[in-house]
Amino acid sequence: MADIEITSLPEYLEKVFSNKGEEFHHEVADLKTMYRGQGNIEWGLLPAVFRTRDDFLNEHFYIREYERLLPKECTGKDSIEILIDAQHYGIPTRLLDVTSNPLVALYFACLEPEAKDVDPDGVVFQFAPAGVFMQYDLSCSVYAEYVRRYKDGIHFPDAWKRGLIESVQNSDSRFSFDAPKAIGKMLSENPLSFFVLPKYSNNRISAQEGAFLLCATPFAEKPDSGYGKGVFLFPDEMKQDFKRMISHRYIIPAEFKESILHQLSSVGINEAKLFPDIEHRVKSIVSAVRKEGRAGKNDEK
Description:
Strand order of the largest sheet: 2-6-7-8-4
Shape: globular
Helix content: 25-40%
Mean pLDDT: 89
Radius of gyration: 21 Å
Order of helices and strands: EHEEHHHEHEEHHHEHEEEEHHH
Number of helices: 12
Distance between the termini: 52 Å
């Protein structure tokens, strides 16, 4: 993984496209380059539900309560759609937001953290080109059905495997007949974390050209009394994190964030564009007016 310091938008574009690999469509999974921007370089590269053990253990309860309390939001949707919507509304999930647009990632890298007493550098992660699955693909259904119906903390009772296989086979996922093999991969010491390209079902995902990294944890074979032959490891027990999928880090020094945001706004990448609800559009108007000055300011001279 190479680190590159960025001080302007033109410099960033030059570096990103010189480091970008081949992309193409494929019947099984498209090959694409994904990006993620973070306003603080010190933040870990982990989805919300992986950041504490309590959240990891509560993952299925979050989804259960989301469905129970907001049934109209879930009606007619399959498990992966429910997880994606829950993520959109702020429920902690194992989905990590990424984008196929490097300009969007740069925008988020230049945002200041909520804490006003810190002024950290930002960072854009450029992932190595990797397979990107549609949300109706088999692997997506396996994890979504597991989280929604069969997760029990770190445990996975042997008796539940058949039920999970049947749930996936009865879903609308592509290649669902291969569910036993895909579930076997999930219940292994080397599961795959992978990118998911969702349907653009809401304006924000569409505006941000959003996608997700669906993150997995290893299943370690060891006695689990009363449950089965193994347990899922906590995220903090993993030997490696998802940074192994990164090809480059673009580091944005704190003192250049504001000027880069101004450059991004000049090419249409701003709060109003990326958050197309009325509240954010109004905030963008106020912010733009404050930055560009006010009428009559020359009268003060």
